[in-house]
Amino acid sequence: MRVRIPLPAIKNKIMGMTPKKHINIQFFKQWSSDMAYILGYIAADGNIHKRKNRINSWMLNITSKDKNHLVVLKNAMNSDHGISSKQNGQGDVSYQLIICHAEICKDLRRLGIHPRKTFTLKPIKVPKEFFSDFVRGYFDADGSVYIYVVNGTPQIKAHFTGASRIFIEKLGLILSQLLGIKEKPIYTTKAKGVRQNMYHFDFYIRDCQRLFDFMYTPMPSLYLSRKYEMFEKWKFVKRRHYIRQVA
Asked: What is the chain's percent helix, strand, coil content, to nearest 5?
């Protein structure tokens, strides 16, 4: 009995090609909680670019120090793309989820994610009902929360940072308005060995509680557990002899 092999399979075998990786190509076409979260994450720690010498070949790269979190993100997009690792000169390891898909990158460009966006990212229009998800995604990629001590009294601080001033300014303005608090000042810093400025704004104590409620109510499906747990830990912090912890 002869087995009939489909032509595409024969062609792939002959040419040494492998089938294309799968991903939900509708993912960035319609707003949802998970879509807004991953878009925020990409705005902070992702990039897209067109590969040279390849027709309509676009690549999305999402970076994280937490490999398990990248697995969560790719599962949310129904992706079976691989995760690779790289090491810098100081020995720090980071991980990359690389998705080669023109349609996905086209949708991201439509939403405001462009090549070489690090210092030129403009404010992204996010529906109000999904803004908390977008903020949480950005915060998980390019934000921090930590507990520290001032004059023997523990404090909590949440921090948003970015290289595009116009993006950070707009993010801080909208977030302050939605939380019902005074607009936060934008601070400028310059990291060691980096020529470009970085910009950030901060939340303290009661404003951190408002931020926590905003980002995690109702409880979302996508979030970085170590940052969520730092906010949770604050509820039980003793007022003395506390050592600073960063997430």
From this structure: 40, 20, 40
* pTM (predicted TM-score): 0.87
Q: What are 71's two structure tokens?
A: 């697995």
The CA-based angle 61-199-155, given to 5 degrees, is 105
pLDDT in tens, 53-80: 766 689 999 999 999 999 999 999 999 9
Between CA 239 and CA 146, with CA 139 as vertex, the angle to 5 degrees is 20
Q: List, in order of start, the domains of the chain with CATH numbers.
A: 19-246 (3.10.28.10)
12 Cβ contact list (under 8 Å, min separation 6): 18, 19
pLDDT tens, residue by residue, 182-233: 999 999 987 666 678 999 999 999 999 999 999 999 999 999 999 999 999 9
